[in-house]
Amino acid sequence: MRHLVIATIILAGTAGVTNAQAKIYHTTRTLSGTVEPGHIAVVGPFASIDKYCKSTATAAIKIVQRPKYGTLKLSIGSGEIEMKPGSRLAMCNDLRARGSIVTYSPRDNFHGTDVFRILLSFEDGERRLVTVPLTIQ
């Protein structure tokens, strides 16, 4: 079965920094993609990485809104790191990191749009709400 990798969210690690010292960000992000019927969408991995491009922690995932026309599966796996150009961790791009992964599978014969929302929680207290609208066609 082929799959579409939607996105990777990697956070700069705060290894060795206490919670009181760490900056806590509460952000919202929207990721989107198009999935062919009978295929799946993989979103992730969600992890924290250190300055050496090593995964230091996986994110805890809470499903905030389930999709109406498909199912979600949560797992741990690996994927490529994708940091913004100019980021202090851009040198890590195309390396692999281990983290939490969400797999979306649309219902058989479904065509249209679907959406789900997840809340990512990291060990340093950072939380991110991620909205994933999908088009199945």
Task: Describe the model.
With 137 residues, this protein is mainly beta. It has one domain (3-14, 26-136): Sandwich (Immunoglobulin-like). The chain has no helices and eleven strands. The strands form two sheets. Strands 1, 2, 5, 6, 8 and 9 form a six-stranded mixed beta sheet that branches. A hairpin with a 5-residue loop joins β10 and β11 (127-136). The model is unreliable at 1-26 (pLDDT under 50).
The end-to-end span amounts to 16 Å
Structural class call reads: mainly beta
- Estimate what percentage of residues fall within beta strands: over 45%
Q: Judging by the overall fold, what is the CATH architecture?
A: Sandwich
Which whole number gives the mean pLDDT?
76
Number of strands: 11
Main CATH class? Mainly Beta
Shape designation: globular
User: What oligomeric state do these chains adopt?
Assistant: single chain
Number of domains: 1
- Note the total helix count: 0
Contiguous runs where pLDDT drops below 50 for at least 5 residues:
1-26
